[in-house]
Write the structure tokens for this entry.
Amino acid sequence: MAKVSIVMGSDSDMPVMSKAAEVLEKFGVDYEMNIISAHREPDEFFEYANTAEERGIKVIIAGAGMAAHLPGMCAAIFPLPVIGIPMHTTSLGGRDSLYSIVQMPSGIPVATVAINGGQNAALLALKMLAVSDNELLAKLKEYKEELKDAVVKKDKRLKEVGYKEY
């Protein structure tokens, strides 16, 4: 049963949203992925959001560009956490998406990551799930050590070869 739902309004968001899916796969967390337009398919969207909890969804990761209504609409309906990913846009570089997702009205929170932040959205979802899952928490701690080890390795190489050869 899926624990995380990844939803996007357009397949143009797939390169970013697939990064979230890759992280969830790495940690062995079940997910579903959907393309649903809240504007072009309102009935389908409401069905998706209204049934997410009964489908076993614990966190929704919603990516959106431009008007960026999808994360906020999910949060208005779904009672559990929603993480918004603002998409880079050609007109305003994603700032329009970022502001739309971050500026939710009181009572309808949406956690928001950086523009095109698919990887961090998945990691945030994992941290939310790990509150009640010790096995997942252990995997996150191990991942943190892997990140540290990668930096130590890069620093060691820099010291060995110098910045000109790095």
The mean pLDDT is 96. The chain has six helices and five strands. The two ends are 45 Å apart (CA to CA). The first strand starts at residue 4 and ends at 8.
